Amino acid sequence: MMEKIGQLDQELFLFLNSFHSDFLDPIMFTMTKTWPWIPMYVFFTYLIMAHYKKESWWVFMAVGLTILFADQTASGLMKPYFERLRPCHEPLLEGMVHNYGYCGGGKFGLASSHAANSFGVATIMSLTLAFKYPWLKWLFAWAAVFSYTRIYLGVHYPGDILVGALVGILSAMAGYFIMKKVRDKIYRSNISDKNLF
């Protein structure tokens, strides 16, 4: 069963990875990096501080926990455990993979840290701010495109992305839950504070 899933994952990867062009290569390579998105993260910081004011640090704690859980689960736990080679490191796919730039940060790709972190950010922003700014739910579309760059560049299978996305979503839910539990315990005597989130 797992062998069949792996085969289908490879076939889907080769199909999605085949859509490339000389024009898009440097664009996708830039999009997959962190620095182009710094203005967006700064804007999120502003939204959090503008809405939560003195309580902002609780949200930043949840964001920090989300990134910590997502990144460590994907890179620190899953990649060394599963040891699934990235497509660009897979000998059976040699000559079939469009790999632009470099072949990721290590030999193994399950699960995608890019997907885990981006879907984690999209989820924690939705949990903490989407009730005020509903358009933030579009962050899931950004996370999907951001994650797709990894397939385009030949460094992740679609399965790596899907598992990474799940890790990110669950990490955000855990970060939010922990933040809220700790906060509610500290402010349990103040009903108005408890209703802030």
From TrEMBL:
SMART domains: acidPPc. Gene3D superfamilies: Phosphatidic acid phosphatase type 2/haloperoxidase. The chain crosses the membrane at residues 34-52, 58-77, 135-155, 161-179. The keyword Transmembrane helix applies. SUPFAM superfamilies: Acid phosphatase/Vanadium-dependent haloperoxidase. Residues 59-176 form the Phosphatidic acid phosphatase type 2/haloperoxidase domain. InterPro entries: PAP2/HPO (IPR000326), PAP2/HPO_sf (IPR036938). Keywords: Membrane, Transmembrane, Transmembrane helix. This is Undecaprenyl-diphosphatase. It comes from Cecembia calidifontis. The lineage of its organism: Bacteria, Pseudomonadati, Bacteroidota, Cytophagia, Cytophagales.
